Amino acid sequence: MAQTPTEADLNKIDWKTMKVDRLTDAQIQKISEEMKSRGVGITELESMARLRGVPAVEIAKLKSRLATVSTSSSAKRGVQQEQAEDSLAVTSDISVKKPVEEERLNKRIFGTTIFNNENLSFEPSLNIPTPKGYQVGVGDELVIDIWGASQAMMRLPVESSGNINVEGVGPIYVNGLTIEEANSKVIGRISSIYEGLRKNGGRIPDTFAQISLGNLRSIKVTIAGEAYVPGTYTLPSLATVFNALYLAGGPNEKGSFRKIKVIRNGKPYKTVDVYDFLLNGNGKQNFVLRDQDIILIPAYETRLAFEGEIKTPGLFEAKSGENMNDLVRYAGGFTAEAYKHRLEIVRKGDRELSILDLAQDDFGKYKPQNGDSITVLKILERYANKVSLEGAVYRTGNFSLTEGLTLSKLILDKGEGLKEDAFLNRGIIYRKAEDLSLEAVSFDVRDVITGKKDLALRRDDKVIVYSIFDLEGERNVNVSGEIRFEGEYAFAEGMTLGDLVGMAGGFKFGATGMRVEVARRNLEEEDQIKTGEIADIFYFDVDKDLRVKGEGNSFKLAPFDQVFVRKAPNYREAENVVVSGEVQFPGKYGLKEETERVSDIIARAGGLTNFAYVKGAALKRKIELSEIEIRRREQIMENDSSMVEDDFKDFEFISINLKKILEKPQSNIDLILQDGDELILPHQLQTVSVTGEVLNPVGVTYVPGKSLKYYINAGGGYSIRAKKGKTFVVYADGSASRSKKFLFFRSWPKVEPGAKVIVPERPERKGNAQQWIGIGTAAASLGLIISNIITSTK
User: In the UniProt record, does the keyword Lipid metabolism occur (predicted)?
Assistant: First the structure.
């Protein structure tokens, strides 16, 4: 949180975090009073604030409020006078946001960030010993400290006349003297009243004196040329070149960093090279300024760009006489990936661009030209001396191609020898030909390691020693059926059938160990051609302890064997049916035998209740729809809007006549139940549903004796798309009945409680209206001809 000056002490203000808008008028007034008591004007206050990192916007706000808030007319006049004196100082906010393109350019210019870094400040230290050669001027305060036999301390300002006025001695002119010269002159003059300072007749002095600076004066420095914020700045007398450059934002995008000139007394004094300060730490470049010094930043003469594999890419300024070695040093040197043997330079000519290739040996001959763009390329991603070894050796990887390295040395020495599974008859070397095409060189591994034959290696050779298992492929065995974990298992020599069953988790509960089948691939092509047999089949009995009975105990599995475990004869998983609706004890029931029927399960459920609607009883049975059946039903649904997706789930309703079943149990109509069946006994039904192509699909109260037409009318009648002749009724038990026509008579299905009346949609006629008009006209003409024929025969 920003600190506010509640105490009248300017040194305790946290200038960097101070927000002027948060200060009250009373606090501003206290600052004004403190300034007056200390003799600090607006100019000195602004310099103090700038050097402590206060943005120019906040300084402007503070000056404005100090001008409007006053404690007395004299204080007000004092503030106005200070503002008048400060009219030469330039107030600029060097933190103003630059345009995007300018910001990007400035970030690329080497040296810019030192003057635009929020974490870096060139605030001059005022608590340091007076530097040698410091020139005393009007406004400085000299402190004369006397100790020994006599003691005294005097703080004497340098007056506008250039004198300090020492009591008992009078004025002493010190303006323009260095601090060392002023020290000698002042001590020499005051020794007239302090005799202990003299050496008379070899007497040792018993009084001593020293001159130092107290309060510092302010100086005005002008920054001109290609500065970001040129102008006149008021600074402490200890301020240096870089203090001033920092306040002005440093050189702009056109300014030079190498030839900044300091003009003193109208003559060139020194030239500042920022690169020398940044790269070499040369403190002589950052010397103390004097009042009325002018810092002139000229435009750059030669600037070039560094791109690619250089540590500090960007824009760099070159001076006359410098070469590529100097520029590479300015850019931080090459990266580890840099191709140092040749640099690519794009040079701007009068009309077009050109490319220069600069070899490393010619770096010292390079003469920078303004606008040059230097690209440091990346080294090639290839090895000068690499060979690789893979396969059945103890140590694989990449190795250096040393002089005289042969294939045998690579395998035996660097690869530490062959593994036991190495295929000795053949190995291969993948080698790049002169045109970089890939060629294969085969060799006999046995001959190489015995010294019978050897090969010299080349760069980028890739040597592969095969494993016998690689050549055979992945050797697995497979087990499936009534086993806990079906799948493939890695083959191992000596593996038995019991081993494989154990690896697969053993038999399932319903499995039988009898007639476990093993199918072995016939690998002999001649046998396959002669007999046509592609596999040999073996049968074995395996007990619960996974021991193979009889001769099969010595049977060993082979790679690619397939083992099948069957389900035990007559074994069936637990099967359940559900009885829902109007029975005494609805719920799930387990089938106790394969021939249990509808009547049996109703009896187990306690029989029907008094509210059971027997005619609506239905049996819901799970089914598995084939792909053909699914497509057939989808086509029906596309052509019949009365059919919905619910009609095509994985179950179907089986119509049953429960009344006859209960009258004749165990008869053919008393269906045998299956696992997953649901027997539904509905409550007495009192409604009829009317759906499909009617104007208002609705549920209608059942009225005994009413015909189908009554319920159609209750739904608003047929719609314009209705196919009336195909109207059908689905009853509560799942059965259906449709309308029928015989000669000129049509019979409509009977409607019962719980029924669903469905009016299907008439399919669209194909062809356009012109075709149907033509057909109608032709029919009318044919009718007229027939009528004429009948008339003529009478």
Answer: no
